């Protein structure tokens, strides 16, 4: 292994055109291999930002305050059950809209309280009442989406017919194959 052909560059490794990977990629992008030293701009510290706290590990008071404020704003949701603020370590994980206490309570609700509901059926109760409730809920959803479904089916059928598929196309294909199968 030999060194890069750019004066002052000590990098070795796989050489292309006599240059190391850094200078070769610079040449590929700009047409010039550039100087031996790095072209990266040094990081300028900006205290009081969440980015400085999170990405660069600054723990000064201004950056800590910025991080706390960011977390508050990002997760400033209220519980859909009790109205309490929903706090989470990561804003993207506060998705269910319930505080921790209500979420735990909702998950531990016994099947007796949910008896005769769609949720009771989906959580495992298969009695006649829960089955009927789930069936009624499915029926309500199906009726609510009926027009959308009809439009979707109509568009699908039109696309298939335009492409040469459909009942008439199948019939004519079947007739052609039957005709060709007959002895002449």
Features of this protein?
184 residues; mainly alpha; 3 domains; two-stranded antiparallel ribbon; 51% helix
Low-confidence stretches: 89-94
Report the biggest beta sheet as strand number plus sense, adding barrel if it closes.
2 strands, antiparallel
Number of strands: 2
Task: Provide a count of the helices.
Answer: 8
Radius of gyration: 33 Å
Helix amount: 40-55%
Taking the alpha carbons of the first and last residues, their distance comes to: 77 Å
- Please identify the structural class as seen in this structure: mainly alpha
Trace the largest sheet across and list its strands.
1-2
Mean pLDDT: 77
Tell me the overall shape. flat
Beta content comes to under 5%
Number of domains: 3
* SSE sequence, one letter per element: HHHEEHHHHH
